[in-house]
Write a structure and sequence with these properties.
- This protein has 134 residues and is of the alpha/beta class.
- The protein has a single domain, classed as Response regulator (Rossmann fold, 3-Layer(aba) Sandwich).
- The protein is built from 5 helices and 5 strands; from the N terminus they run E-H-E-H-E-H-E-H-E-H.
- The chain has a 5-stranded parallel beta sheet with strand order 2-1-3-4-5, sandwiched between helices.
- Strand 1 (7-11), helix 1 (15-27) and strand 2 (31-35) form a beta-alpha-beta unit.
- Helix 2 packs parallel to helix 3 (64-74).
- The chain is globular, with a radius of gyration of 14 Å.
């Protein structure tokens, strides 16, 4: 099931990566915002409306884990897919314990991440629906 009304925030300081993800996700019908720094990401996220964040761990101003914490503290139903070119098992475990939906090592193909995006958005919608029933 695809959720084309979903809004995604891509956080990566590598323009080729963020532009590629934005273009591919937009072609799938998603609305995509991009941020190259943690400060920019937090500002965009705090304006609201994002269903999913795809966040690099290596940002110029903050560790991506800080973004993950901010998202989960501010809006727990928003899912986060963490991506990094410097993946270790310890970092993957840390991200997962911090609430990341999935941990993906760079480089990756769009075909690899698209099903994760769809599952993360579906999970987020189920969580939001459950919260509204309480």
């Amino acid at each position: 099931m695809q959720h084309k009304d979903a809004r995604i925030l891509v956080i990566d300081d590598e323009p080729m990566m963020s532009d590629s993800l934005k273009q591919n996700l937009a072609e799938e019908g998603y609305t995509v915002d991009t941020a190259a720094t943690g400060a920019e990401a937090i500002e965009l996220f705090d304006r609201g409306g994002h269903h999913l964040c795809i966040c690099d761990l290596q940002l110029p101003d903050v560790d991506g884990m800080e973004i993950l914490r901010h998202v989960k503290e501010t809006k727990p139903s928003t899912e986060v897919i963490v991506v990094t070119g410097y993946g270790t098992v310890a970092r993957a475990v840390e991200a997962t314990k911090g609430g990341a939906f999935y941990f993906v090592e760079k480089p990756f193909d769009f075909e690899q991440i698209l099903p994760l995006v769809e599952k993360a958005i579906e999970r987020r919608e189920l969580m939001a629906e459950t919260e509204s029933m309480r």
